[in-house]
Amino acid sequence: MDRYAVIGHPIGHSKSPAIHSAFAAATGQILSYEAIEAPLGAGQFAATVERFRSQGGRGVNVTLPFKPDACAYATHLAESARCAGAANALKFEGDRCLAENFDGSGLVRDLSHNLGLRLAGRTVLLLGAGGASRGAILPLLRARPAQLWVLNRSAAKAEALVREFLALGADAAVLHGGGFDELAQSVRFDLVLNATSASLSAETLPLPARTFKPDGLAYDMVYGKGLTPFLRQAQQAGVRQLADGVGMLVEQAAEAFAWWRGVRPTTTDVIRRLSLPLI
Ligand code: ATR
Name one GO cellular component term (predicted). Predict the structure, then answer.
């Protein structure tokens, strides 16, 4: 039987085995999918992948903190992995190891297919300048927003991140980086995405209510945390459409499944099953 796995540390919380097992059952694919905890430390991720490959592994998903290690380990990087400096899916073909990063495309697919948001011509605010934000920028730009602002607690980090994408050819009239203080004067945004890790520690971001449009969408990339402080802020600002990252999680899994198996599973039932009410 073809073997797949998700590798991370810790890994006990991972929903990936349940998601991929559901996809396999729905598409009639015969495969196994397990969760593997790799030890932390230099070379440990590569050693864990090597062992899995030697036991017949065909591909892996990669989660925190190993996404940059997955990029370094691979022999062939897709543009998504190269731009993000991180990979969340590997495929083994003989001696070759191909790397992809489906987080950003999973996000955009969730926004457009599941949440019904037309990104073209809209104003988008991306909060944070870490790995989650970096992986989202290119797929968001491809959806042709009128504006994509990347704002961060440390403005210099957002500015440096944006400069990297401008150097790759992004349009300076669309993509802008800076600090949260810019929100005092800025326009309202159709879509506000939280890609900071503040929700994991239940911290509140300094966002004026006028950042949000009531008929816009507020999206927190974390999942399974219910109504995060960010989503509560958006709700208090009158935003009616709130979403967490469960759809992004399932959509990136579907992209990986299709890449490995050549069959694209439907995602609606799995998203519904994993969704927690945002209350
Ligand atoms: P990830 O890979 O999840 O993006 P990361 O690379 O550690 O994680 O980045 C975390 C992001 O969350 C950063 O943008 C960080 O802001 P700084 O660059 O200023 O540190 C942001 N972040 C974390 N906690 C935050 C908080 N309490 N308020 C605002 N931003 C926060």
Answer: cytosol
